[in-house]
Amino acid sequence: MSAELIRLLENILRVGVVIAVDEESWRVRVQSGELQTDWLRWNATRAGAFSIWMPPSVGEQVWLGCIGGNPETAVIIGSLYSSEHPAPGSSLQEIVLTAPDGASFRYDAEASALEAQGMKTAHIKASASVTLETPIVECTDHLKARTFELSEGGTMKGNVTHSGGSLTSNGVTVHSHVHGGVQGGSSNTGGPK
Fold first, then answer.
1. 115: domain range?
2. How many structural domains compose the chain?
3. Which whole-number Å values give the CA distances from 90 to 101, 106, 138, in the listed order?
4. pLDDT tens, residue by residue, 127-176
5. Residues 14 and 71 in one domain
6. Are residues 73 and 95 in the same domain?
7. In sequence order, what DSSP letters do the residues of 8-69 get, joined into one string?
8. Are 12 and 76 members of one domain?
9. I need a surface site. Which of 10, 67, 156, 179 has the fewest CB within 10 A?
């Protein structure tokens, strides 16, 4: 076997570290031993009708797949955990996604629990509706809605302040109703009108 053929075979797969990322052209440069690559495309989980964007980061350890054993034709075919970027989970029963700002998405199949945390804001925009089908939805702090409708009753505890507009109960506007048959003294008023 010739030295050139051995070199090509040895270069089919290489491990390297990302040293630069160009997010506009979806390419990275990699240091692999003495080799510093040109700009290489990275593997996308999906890049068709369904598409996922999760760019590599500087310092990430990656696999290079060198077509024909030539590093000039290489593409990034995957990532490897490293001491600088360890795995964010350790259970065979969970999916974990993390972001550089500390946000994380975790689904634990053993506990059947979904957790998303660490982000400053979350936005869901649906053109028709959003349905939460569960026995209880709990908001631990301030809940704000432009309008609301209760269809099966409920209870409120604590002080409630109303301002602006009308508050109507069973057809009676609470702040402007009058009582008929009022007499002076210790008598009680009649019902509202």
1. 87-119
2. 2
3. 21, 12, 30
4. 999 999 999 999 999 999 999 888 888 898 999 888 888 888 888 887 77
5. yes
6. no
7. HHHTSEEEEEEEEEETTTTEEEEEETTEE---EEB--S-BSSSB------TT-EEEEEEGGG
8. yes
9. 156
